[in-house]
Design brief:
The protein has helices at about 1-10, 60-65, 75, 140-145, 145-155, 175-190, 200-205, 240, 260-265, 285-295, 310-320, 340-350, 350-360, 375-390, and strands spanning about 20-25, 35-40, 45-55, 90-95, 110-115, 120-125, 130-135, 165-170, 190-195, 210-215, 230, 250-255, 275, 305-310, 325-330, 335-340, 390-400, 400-410, 420-430, 435. By secondary structure, it is α/β, with parallel strands linked by helices. It has 3 domains: about 1-145 and about 300-330, Alpha-Beta Complex (Quinone Oxidoreductase, Chain A, domain 1); about 160-275, NAD(P)-binding Rossmann-like Domain (Rossmann fold, 3-Layer(aba) Sandwich); about 335-435. Strand 19 and strand 20 form a beta hairpin.
């Protein structure tokens, strides 16, 4: 991928304002999505431009993709999508800030959730929106899989008491919302019963559930137990089925189901048991609270599978099976390529400081700065060629690894500029650095 993009860049067929994104132009199955080069967004004065390293495919993304339920077309487009790029959750690095931004700076590592646009290399988000600095102890993949499910669970449970002494049952406890709800309720002090399938019982125990029920072996509505709150995190239950498991004053909350909307309206004034519909709201305060929980070891993202961005169709198919555990993550290789004209190329080849500034300036402050002492003789040997034809430089970040490449361009052959001799430096978060000489150059 790096080689292909580099060749496009030196040939003048790409430009700094472009990015790759997954787009869809009509509603339908996962196959309507495809990768496309689109204009990179430009941040408004109160926005951040985030270079995305990881994102997710959520249940909501699948709903938008197929425009289900049908009434959502009133918001996302009646006949075709108004927003071509899906994706809600993200984790990455601030690439640019608007003039009015004060809480973030270029190079900051961030995570958050937005309405659309995260299935891309870059996204613009409001500074006042649901975004915060990334917790230090987690990867980009883990950070990207936090906010949607946890913010949705927080929104659903905010209106009820889940403090100490309260009994809470969570149905669908291993999905994105359910696995978040188990941990949030446990952190609040509730007595948590989690309903899951056989293979995931140990997982929900590890998340903090006090008791677990295997729904393939036991129907919790027939065991004689009652719960102050029953939270259906997957939208599969109904109030009528669960009513007998609620005590007077108990509350049933569901994330889906038209029938439950009707019961919500009815029980608002009739009876001593309540039905409520959970409506997700994404707030900065909730993301900041999640960061604190992660930093203190009281919350972790549950990740089922990880795919590269270009395999978004396969990832979406899997989410639509409704068999995922936790979250499905997409990794995004944040790639930068620079075409250097001969004068700057010559300086790059002979001057370690110039080379370090060129590559180091694109990296977060926490990364070790480049050191070219070990290969200065090789750079010096390449200086003559670089002065003639120019050079290239590339920085690619995947998860917590940074790959830097520099080299010179060979002479045109049949009008095509070829890559010349190159050097690759790989650095990881623990400070390990290695040099290699790419064979494909």
């Amino acid at each position: 991928m790096a080689a292909c993009r580099a060749l496009l860049l030196v040939a003048g067929e790409a430009h700094n304002g472009a990015m790759q994104a997954v787009v869809y132009d009509r509603y339908g199955p996962p196959e309507v999505q495809h990768l496309e080069d689109v204009e990179r967004p430009v941040p408004a004065p109160d926005q951040l431009l985030v270079r995305i390293h990881a994102t997710t495919v959520t249940r909501t993304d699948c709903g938008w993709l197929r425009a289900r339920p049908f009434f959502v077309r009133a918001f996302i487009g009646l006949f075709r999508p108004k927003r071509r790029i899906l994706g809600m959750e993200y984790a990455g690095e601030v690439a640019e800030v608007g003039a009015a931004v004060t809480q973030f700076a270029v190079g900051d590592l961030v995570f958050g959730v937005t309405g659309f646009g995260a299935h891309a290399e870059y996204v613009c988000v409001l500074e006042r929106g649901a975004v915060a600095h990334k917790p230090a102890g987690v990867t980009f993949e883990e950070a990207s899989a936090v906010c949607d499910g946890a913010c949705a669970a927080t929104s659903c449970l905010r209106s009820v008491d889940i403090g100490p002494g309260r009994r809470l049952l969570i149905y669908g406890a291993t999905g994105s919302i359910g696995s978040a709800a188990v941990q949030l309720a446990r952190a609040a002090g509730a007595d948590v019963t989690a309903v899951a399938n056989t293979k995931n019982l140990e997982l929900v125990r590890s998340l903090g559930a006090d008791r677990v029920i295997d729904w393939t072996q036991e129907d919790f509505t027939r065991n004689g137990e009652t719960y102050d709150v029953i939270f259906d995190a997957v939208g599969k239950l109904t109030f009528t089925r669960c009513r007998g498991s609620l005590p007077p004053g108990g509350t049933f909350i569901s994330t889906d189901g038209v029938r439950n909307i009707l019961w919500w309206a009815w029980t608002w004034r009739v009876g001593d048991k309540r039905a409520r519909m959970g409506i997700a709201a994404y707030r900065k305060a909730d993301v900041l609270q999640l960061k604190d929980l992660i930093d203190s070891g009281r919350y972790r993202a549950v990740i089922d599978r990880t795919y590269p961005l270009e395999e978004v169709v396969e990832a979406t198919r899997y989410v639509e099976t409704e068999q995922k555990t936790g979250n499905v993550v997409l990794t995004v290789g944040a790639l930068e390529l620079r075409r250097l004209e001969p004068p700057l190329a010559a300086a790059l080849m002979r001057d370690r400081e110039t080379a370090g500034q060129l590559l180091g300036a694109t990296l977060p402050p926490s990364w070790p700065q480049p050191d070219f002492l070990d290969i200065l003789p090789l750079l010096a040997a390449a200086e003559g060629e670089a002065a003639k034809f120019g050079a290239w430089a590339m920085v690619e970040r995947v998860s917590n690894t940074v790959v830097e490449e520099i080299g010179f361009l060979g002479p045109p052959v049949d009008g095509v500029v070829e890559m010349g001799f190159g050097f690759r430096r790989t650095g990881t978060a623990d400070g390990q650095i290695s040099w290699s000489f790419p064979a494909d150059r």
